[in-house]
Amino acid sequence: WCGFLLVALVSPRMAGLRVDFGLLLEPLGFIKVLEWIFSIFAFATCGGFQGETTLLVSCKGVVNKTVTAVFAYPFRLNTVVFSAPDPKRCGGTWTDVYLVGNFSSSAQFFVTLAVLVFLYCIAALVVYVGYKHVYQQNSKFPLTDLAITVITAFLWLVSTFAWAKALADIKMSTGASIIPGIESCKAPGTTCRFASVTSMGTLNVSVVFGLLNMVLWGGNIWFVYKDINLHNQSNRIS
After folding, report:
1. How far apart are CA 119 and CA 39, in angstroms?
2. What are the pLDDT digits (tens) for 122-149?
3. Which of 7, 45, 91, 100 has the most crowded Cβ, counting Cβ within 10 A?
4. What is the spatial distance between Cα 12 and Cα 80, in angstroms, rounded to a whole number?
5. If 0-12 CB within 10 Å is exposed, 13-18 middle and 19+ buried, where does residue 79 land?
């Protein structure tokens, strides 16, 4: 499939370029455009996120000092440290405080899949628009397209649910529940109060786009299947 596409792009005369944008109005092409657009939103809403969680600390010589921990994609929270309340670090009772959890595997799996889908959709649209006749004449290409579509739909299912679970854990690891686990806040004369955390609405949206991509690719299986010989043969037998 990739070799055919490379030949088609490098030697359009050899491959017989026939540009037909009308296919974009048919279900096969129109869904591929939607998949391309939704993949952009999926990796943009997840990969572009940056936030911070804030505490108010009172200790020796310090009253309600704001300390922050800034986190972002790929959400290796265990490497994110809170700023110190003051240069003297509360008289030596304040030690480095890190967030808990490493959710990079789920986040990177989701974003990487979205980027690969984005690139594949571009390649597929080039073939659909410029080389549809070659695509239809050789049964290997529709079969390959069908296999990739089925696998991609499954990967969207796995990556979206994995990312949704990781997102729920990220919210727990950056919310008010982190205070009981901070040893420095248990020191005599030290109190910590949770102040705020950046809204994660865009990350919630990324999960929604993951589900939409899963539905799109699942539905697209039928339209790709219609283009393979097996479907045509079953129609002739009927």
Report:
1. 9
2. 988 888 887 777 766 766 777 888 888 9
3. 45
4. 51
5. exposed
